[in-house]
Amino acid sequence: MRFSLLMLLVAAMTASPLHQASAEQVKLDVRLVHPVMKSGEKQTNHLRIALTGFELKSAEERPPVNVCLVLDHSGSMSGQKLTRAKEAAEAAIDRLSNDDIVSVVLYDSNVTVLVPATKATDRESIKQKIRGIKAGSSTALFAGVSKGAAEVRKFLADEQVNRVILLSDGLANVGPQSPQELEGLGRSLMKEAISVSTLGLGSGYNEDLMVALASVGGGNHAFIEDADSLVSVFNQEFDGLLSVVANEFEIVVKLDESVRPVRMIGSEGDIEGQTIRIPLAQLYANQERYFIVETEVSPGTEDSTRDLAEVTVQYRNLQTETKEKLTSSIQVRFSDEEKIVEEAKDMEVYAYCSLQITTELNREATALRDAGQVKEAQSLLNRNATSLNKLYFECEAKGVTSVLPELKLAEVSNEMQAEAIVDRSKWNSTRKSMRQLQNAVQNQQTYSVDVPSLSPSQSSAPRR
Fold first, then answer.
1. Same domain (yes/no): 211, 82
2. Is 81 within a domain?
3. Distance between CA atoms of 367 and 364, rounded to whole angstroms?
4. Do 235 and 252 lie in a common domain?
5. Which of 193, 249, 270, 436 maximizes the CB count within 10 A of its CB?
6. Which helix (DSSP H) or strand (DSSP E) does residue 378 occupy?
7. Which residues constitute the domain of residue 380?
8. Contacts of 360 (CB under 8 A, 6+ apart)
9. How far apart are CA 76 and CA 138, in angstroms?
10. Higher local confidence (pLDDT), 140 or 103
11. Same domain, 45 and 115
């Protein structure tokens, strides 16, 4: 059963470009779960900041890309894995244009630059070099990514998309090899506007390491169980890469003095006093990317209105190569009537917040299973499934349909994971699937996510 992560277009808020441009702009939507709050009480409220990329009308409008393929050719990649990896890399090269820049880095125990960063004018020559790749020995993953970034850095430019795409099937066993060390590398590269996507092949790689690198590196992560799927996944990665419409984001949230920022849910953010800075590497055409801020709001009086937050977004429009600015402010109203408070509740925003919260709980379940607490993990996953099922029908009854596919995907996934984690022989594969889905939900990854076929009992009508 397959669900694609939904890409939702939202209404634009106030847009004030730094440089006037005739092209479309990114759209900003700022909303609260509770636009009306109960007066006289200190309460929690959630702020959702959503950005939506505009449509690319033709392939000619896309910005050039500067991409490095970092390919693991260690001994474990021999045979079909390496054959399919080379086919996928060749297919990716075919999608580039003469204005794009490409490089190819190989790594085993050593790192080799197979194709130094160059314009993709002679694509046949590049593919010929890829065809000649042979399997080697160990896995110097950190060094491979670092060298890939060095090739991208040779032609680093603001008006293009700069990315490293890492493919590996094994554990890093040469050089730095902890998730924390790779996360640090991803963060440093993101500051240079170089995003990193990680593709994990088979059952032997470290998913925590690969997810950490991609999530902080502004890229994607995919678990590829079968080497035959490599070409398809590479195509999905390049679908995004070739449709980036904006980058160099500076997202700043300034909260009113009466509002305390508690935490970011599902994403990173730098909180200093009343100011939150949220990192974002790039935005794809028609993609919605949202961020959730949990806040604590001090008591208000009946029928009063208060400014809650002002959001400013600056970014580079890659279609016009200009810097643009979006601003939006949000207020909250207070009422003594609980019915008014409940009726004003924004169910769509509430559903998206719930998706992020249940994803955090899914990560807790993963940690519980790692610690051998199978029953506790199973109970948590089942509670997730039940709450998501209830929310699904509540949204459906109120006509909030945009989020239904994602709610159903999350519900079914938690249900199936609760069954699968009992099987020790399949835990390695199940864990990789769980980490992939967690990352996909938290980063609103545009890849479709495959969920294994449901058993007859699971594929029946949804629970009520």
1. yes
2. yes
3. 5
4. no
5. 436
6. helix 374-397
7. 347-443
8. 265, 266
9. 8
10. 103
11. no
**Same structural domain for residues 121 and 226?**
yes
pLDDT 10s digits, 232-263: 999 999 999 999 999 999 999 999 999 999 99
Q: Find the DSSP H helices in 120-206.
A: 123-131, 141-153, 179-191
Q: What is the pLDDT of residues 401-451, one digit of tens each?
A: 999 999 999 999 999 999 999 999 999 999 999 999 999 999 998 876 554
pLDDT of residue 366: 97
pLDDT digits (tens, 9 = 90+) for 271-320: 999 999 999 999 999 999 999 999 999 999 999 999 999 999 999 999 98
CA distances from 368 to 378, 387, 435 (A): 9, 20, 14
The span from the CA of 111 to the CA of 85, in Å, is: 17
CB 41 within 8 A of CB 14: no
How many structural domains compose the chain?
A: 3
Residue 221, class by beta-carbon neighbours within 10 Å (0-12 exposed, 13-18 middle, 19+ buried)?
Answer: buried
Tell me the C-alpha to C-alpha distance, in Å, between residue 62 and each of 58, 272, 313, 406, 446. 7, 36, 22, 29, 17
Contact of 207 with 178, CB cutoff 8 Å: no
Of 242, 273, 296, the domain-final residue: 242
Residues pairing with 435 in the sheet? none
Task: Give the rounded distance of the alpha carbon of 325 from its chain centre.
Answer: 23
70 and 214 share a domain?
Answer: yes
pTM of this prediction exceeds 0.85: yes
pLDDT tens digits along 183-226: 899 999 999 999 999 999 988 889 999 999 999 888 999 999 88
Q: Which two tokens stand for residue 292?
A: 């959730």
Angle separating helix axes 404-420 and 347-370, nearest 10 degrees: 20
Given 242, 261, 294, which residue is the final one in a domain?
242
Give yes or no: residues 104 and 224 share one domain: yes
195 and 277 fall within a common domain:
no
Q: Report the C-alpha gap between 87 and 84 in whole angstroms.
A: 5
Tell me the per-residue pLDDT of 170-187, one tens digit each, with 9 for 90 and over.
Answer: 777 777 778 888 889 999
Question: Residue 455: what pLDDT?
Answer: 37
Residue corresponding to tokens 């700069």: 162
Distance, in Å, from the CA atom of 212 to the CA atom of 96, rounded to the nearest integer, reads: 28
- Whether residue 296 lies inside any domain: the answer is yes
- For range 17-44, the mean pLDDT: 82
